[in-house]
Amino acid sequence: MSNRNPLPLDEDGDDKLHEECGVFGIIGGDEAAAVTALGLHALQHRGQEAVGISAFDGTDFVTRRGLGHVADNFSTGDSIAELPGHMAAGHVRYSTTGGAGLRNVQPLYADLASGGFAVAHNGNISNASALKAELVQKGAIFQSTSDTEVIIHLVATSRYPTMLDKLVDALRLVEGAYALIVMTPRGMAACRDPLGIRPLVMGKLGDAVVFASESVALDVVGAEFTRQVEPGELIEVDFDGTVRSHRPFGDPPARPCIFEHVYFSRPDSIFNERSVYESRKHIGIELAKEAPCDAELVVPVPDSGVPAAIGYSQQSGIPFELGIIRSHYVGRTFIQPSDGARHAGVKRKHNANRMLVEGKKIVLIDDSIVRGTTSMKIVQIMRDAGAAEVHFRVASPPTGHGCYYGVDTPERSKLLAGRMDLAAMREFIKADSLAFVTIDGLYRAVGLAKRDNACPQYCDACFTGEYPTALTDLARRHERDAQLVLPVSKPVHKVA
Amino acid sequence: MSNRNPLPLDEDGDDKLHEECGVFGIIGGDEAAAVTALGLHALQHRGQEAVGISAFDGTDFVTRRGLGHVADNFSTGDSIAELPGHMAAGHVRYSTTGGAGLRNVQPLYADLASGGFAVAHNGNISNASALKAELVQKGAIFQSTSDTEVIIHLVATSRYPTMLDKLVDALRLVEGAYALIVMTPRGMAACRDPLGIRPLVMGKLGDAVVFASESVALDVVGAEFTRQVEPGELIEVDFDGTVRSHRPFGDPPARPCIFEHVYFSRPDSIFNERSVYESRKHIGIELAKEAPCDAELVVPVPDSGVPAAIGYSQQSGIPFELGIIRSHYVGRTFIQPSDGARHAGVKRKHNANRMLVEGKKIVLIDDSIVRGTTSMKIVQIMRDAGAAEVHFRVASPPTGHGCYYGVDTPERSKLLAGRMDLAAMREFIKADSLAFVTIDGLYRAVGLAKRDNACPQYCDACFTGEYPTALTDLARRHERDAQLVLPVSKPVHKVA
Amino acid sequence: MSNRNPLPLDEDGDDKLHEECGVFGIIGGDEAAAVTALGLHALQHRGQEAVGISAFDGTDFVTRRGLGHVADNFSTGDSIAELPGHMAAGHVRYSTTGGAGLRNVQPLYADLASGGFAVAHNGNISNASALKAELVQKGAIFQSTSDTEVIIHLVATSRYPTMLDKLVDALRLVEGAYALIVMTPRGMAACRDPLGIRPLVMGKLGDAVVFASESVALDVVGAEFTRQVEPGELIEVDFDGTVRSHRPFGDPPARPCIFEHVYFSRPDSIFNERSVYESRKHIGIELAKEAPCDAELVVPVPDSGVPAAIGYSQQSGIPFELGIIRSHYVGRTFIQPSDGARHAGVKRKHNANRMLVEGKKIVLIDDSIVRGTTSMKIVQIMRDAGAAEVHFRVASPPTGHGCYYGVDTPERSKLLAGRMDLAAMREFIKADSLAFVTIDGLYRAVGLAKRDNACPQYCDACFTGEYPTALTDLARRHERDAQLVLPVSKPVHKVA
Amino acid sequence: MSNRNPLPLDEDGDDKLHEECGVFGIIGGDEAAAVTALGLHALQHRGQEAVGISAFDGTDFVTRRGLGHVADNFSTGDSIAELPGHMAAGHVRYSTTGGAGLRNVQPLYADLASGGFAVAHNGNISNASALKAELVQKGAIFQSTSDTEVIIHLVATSRYPTMLDKLVDALRLVEGAYALIVMTPRGMAACRDPLGIRPLVMGKLGDAVVFASESVALDVVGAEFTRQVEPGELIEVDFDGTVRSHRPFGDPPARPCIFEHVYFSRPDSIFNERSVYESRKHIGIELAKEAPCDAELVVPVPDSGVPAAIGYSQQSGIPFELGIIRSHYVGRTFIQPSDGARHAGVKRKHNANRMLVEGKKIVLIDDSIVRGTTSMKIVQIMRDAGAAEVHFRVASPPTGHGCYYGVDTPERSKLLAGRMDLAAMREFIKADSLAFVTIDGLYRAVGLAKRDNACPQYCDACFTGEYPTALTDLARRHERDAQLVLPVSKPVHKVA
Asked: Which of A320, B285, B478, C484 reaches 20 to 30 Å from B403, CA-CA?
């Protein structure tokens, strides 16, 4: 009787890569947990599924965790009052993989022989499975399925005498990406992996020292930006305010994640010593140079396409107009009526400004294309609204490779650029023309002359497939798959 | 020990007038409740505090109500399955005044002698108290404190024979603003008050007829826009699809609310036969003509200031840039740490794009100023971020008068324009210059030559103080206050 | 593969008639709501599904309602603090018929022209539908499906001048059973129907006057028992402590419900000036005389069979022993495993004391048999535990007729005694012998010589089918059914 | 203005020792989790605060835990459907000490190198702190504060090759009381400590093997009682139904807890090969012989005093009557009105049957006296109801010593018998006479000639102070307290 929409509806109209986490910590200030809640709130775009804060009052650590947003869990006086003390650290996460509910929500905590140990981690340890297997063999009992717990067990069983040595001993065994904030009864430590893949910055709030994934969190809590934590740097802060910097991994060339500039970080953050907004606007400028277009309107796909669209408009002289209106009351999936409401899913989020676009030639600007499903629907919405021509420009190179450093990526076979060439992609999204910024255009937009192919200045593996670290767990999984010995096993325990 | 922020923090940074409601109805279609949920979702900006849907399956009416957003209450299959049938109507509301919890959430329903009667109402009845006193005197028992229930009791006690006559009989006694959707076992009726103060449009979804507060709801459910319900028009729709239009109040000149163009409606809606986005952009153009400014950047106060800022930029040639980044993870009030986090409340929502504005002369564009508190903080944020000059342009005339037609307005003494002249307002918000669009500039922007002062084409009472209807309850309250006979009495019953 | 139990499992093992409500009120004391909560808690056995309390603080009425037990809703200081004042009344109810959620939970409240009016009602109005139809015809709008609301509308539309006259005017139109507690801004009124079918007692707590369905509630709150409210009596109590008794219905002979002695009231209550425990023990004594039995153990079906079993044991000389152990952790239905767990449902509540009954001849004593399903299972459990003979004695006559006075009774066709004679009943429950106390035995046990058949001293309609009032709604329903004009209509509005 | 009750109100009127746990397990049957839920429900009296079930489906273990009763957490089909498989074990617990919420709720689970390991434990390990300190020193990370987790870590780090050897290796290091049910991918193991302090029985349900703390759980699930698990016995059950019994601790004389007969077990259970009901009735008989009394009524303190009261009545010939009526709607603490409601707290649970006891000489029978507060109030209630004399007989010896084997006991200084002699106790509870059964009377009642003082047949440490095991943690705490070195430390981590 009715024609069901033949496409799998991506209800949210969200076809983005997602940063998995944000971290925040403060030592030496009053109301440390309240500041941490505010800081995490400013990092909410880095993870919306769960949040946790641990605080230390000089004697005890207390941890509070919850599913959902920071405001859902830490906006009441009661929730903050449970977390007294002058040191606190917190974490927002994008998803709780493994169905383990609150067990995987960070900060993770353990009572070690040397005292309490709490850790918040942004990133992904690419040899976690291998390390875990060894630890369990020796009698370690894991309480979560989080890769972060591997670090705690490595610290717990390290034979070095001091906490700093134990931590460095542990991190030397670890491979992958991490920005860590650690609390012990003696103070706070913050650390980035040797390549500095994930971001971490440092600030000052009165006498207190603050760490955060992005500088915007410093702004929101009223702290001053000091500097970024350098790739491979481990910074110790004591309760008396002493700050000590260590370089336990020597000084390899850094490879920060270039996608922070493209999409992950907020435009008002400073990443790798450059304004993210500036980078995005310049990608639009590069794009206008590399892929000009005979259009009457530059229309951003809101909100992430706006800065590049401003750049494209300024460079091309074509007026910038809101041809798509985005609703911010989105989140859950709705029941889809079967009749009439074609594309309602995506329209709930993105609706055409019909009287503007009708009869016009438009160029759409989006930050990236992942699976392509949303792009296709947005093109269709523009056509349904009467656009005469719909051109599509993308403010990043084609995303053809998965990320193993703490970003949720679909399998390569689901990435549009992983399975199609440019012509096929244009055909898939049904645009009149399609262009991506080049990899060199992207490097220019972030302020460099070009990509140094011998030794790239950023991690750009999602575009190039060049991974800057070993990927031990992945390699072993491929070996096993090749031998057809075992399917990837399910977790052996689940908390219902 | 610490200096508490001396300003009363408006945590949300929200200093807006708020439309109190949105309504949606459908008759003659499959899955009427699911379509209604989607339609209300598209009207969510008109009311976020409560939502209700009533459905009629040919025999029974079922109503489901909840606090919070549409998605919180109507996104599951179970919630929709409880509401079967081919006719449904729903309502979102901004606040549940009177603390009466779910009792005041619409649609309201009553079993009348003639059968079931459900009503969803956007607007405000300005003689509700007077009518209620008379009804109670005759033995009527009210279950809510909503003015809408007065209509139901007037219908229930009308001596006219048919439901249509009863409804018209009731509405003739009522004064004020209303856009109503009524359901009875015989069909649906939709109606706007004689002046058409509140909006209501009509559409077609397959064979079904759809009504909604704004055209964007038609877009999102996939319906076609037919026309607006005319001021003073009452439209009956039967289950067989017959549509009958009535004009029970004759044909007085219309006075739709001009603030729908300024702020209430979504930019992708069509109001009073004109694109709202177009109106807003043209206000910016008028503003650039009336109040030019020597600035380097046009910076919108997001999101509502964006269309006018685009107009201002296009007219003036000054580049449009995102100097303020808005977080969309806002909602609840956070615990305010006492130290350091000066302006954290407003920064949670609006943060400066520091590296952009530093050292620059900027002109901020906002849609309106109500109390002025947010404007003051935003100017301060820009200065803290290093802006060299901060000019402020407002895309509406000064808001100096309360609204009694279904909009939540502060008392006149709290309206910035109700207590200060332009120079004092500029001083209060500490801008380098301040200008508002003129009332004629506003009328030009919505496509008219100028305001017809003898018979204004819109209700603009919030700017001019010229109220197009009697305000009986208000007049009586003033009389009583003048006689010092009685304080405004508390409600005599509360549900805890 | 497995044999599903062929009987419909009555999971709770509860095969009882249920009193529908309990009421409690206090005027003139401190912390009126706290006392009311405690009093309702002592009446919890009269209704477990919902509870409400209204309090009056001299200006406002506040009502708080909830589903579940008193302790679930009124055990916190916050819940009580919302209900300030020196007058309060409350209600527990067995079920919320009509699926209307909290709308039907009492006390009901209305703002009348004369001021606030709150009412708590135990009983059932047997012409409620007829009265409601008339009221709706005149324009009344009902907010609940409760018969009690009819009283409020009759009061609201009465033409008498004083509240007392209005109330009496309303009650004269009403037929059936009621024990009412009414609150107005002038004080409290308590009233029993002319026949006094449902119970109501009066007590004194310091200077305060207290009313309750049973005397046990007076004990628990520490009040002194004054006397019962007489059948047909209306007692007014003012805030200054003045108590006025009225007899608005003349002085018809009383007919209190004899089942209060059999099962409804708690054994430590005084009903109709007699100890309920004493009555129950004497039923056991009469039963031992009328239906002796060659058994080795008297085994009560706990808890309600215990007093009669003590009487039976004392009269017969057969030892009283706990052959069945009852769990008090019962309530919800459990998932029934298909294998092995035969009779697990009833065993969850009643388990055999196997080592006691094995090889013994036992006589089971229960207070009543309604559907017979639990009795059958209990006999089986005793046999499974090895009892040599199982005799069954019932401490009430056969229950063959429905109740229309506020007791939840199955249809006559589901009452075991409504569809079988004694021999068939014995066969159904598979006992070695079965006997019920005679109706005259029951009257003797409650202290009378015998039943006065011309003018019975109690309402015993459930045993005899002799209803002491007209049953207008039932008669009309039968008429309609006979004419096959209309099915019993569903409610026209439901709140999901 | 009002006289506050001078006594600390024990709101619940509960002055009992509490068993801390009950366990249940099944292997080899369909719907293992549903049977486990039913079995735990029958053990609900052993722990009401939390419940958990783990199930194994041949591949994965799934655990579901919750606060509150079994019925609150496991009565829905959904909750059971999450726990598929033919092996399951569960646990009810009295309290979640340590405020750790669900972390301490059993079964506990760990992924060991040898595979999954789940354990449910009833009892208390009296050297847990000492063992935990050693384990943490070696790098173990504890996730709960439960003593049970010590067993898991000892198993995880055991150097023995097989799971059975590892478990025995672990248990040899452990001191105290335990009845354990363990699940691994290979099957189930059930085990009692060498002295068999805590109970555990074994049954058969079709082909499945069932373990439970009490035989009543076997009855309720429909299983056949096989035998008790012997003290010091470890029983392994494989999925093919093979049952192997081990005696890893040799054959020391058993010391089961005699308080299971006095109060903990349900009267319809069989403990140590004897009917609990029979034991309790015989305590009443012994008591009547040892401490006769010139009374007119034997009144049990319900419910636990009933069997002994029946014995006392049968032996003495004084009639058994319900002089106290117990409400089963108890649980939460209520707000105590300050006026009038003297003793309302205890009356909520225990109310006098005034018309029965007025003017009578009565003898009250209770199972035990712990703090004495409830006994005092009950005596007072009887006097307030007009009893002429109130004698008190206790069906256990004076409880003067704490329990360290899994029973929640107040400190010795709060035990009435720990701080007073008989005369003072009588004075405290204000009875006309007071007597306890003798220790030899108690041993006779459980079927023995007398207590063997050289080698007692039961653990009766709560009466005698003779503890059958070392109490290492307690001894060390005393040492530390003696040296005044350290206060008892707070836990270093809390989950808020």
From this structure: B285
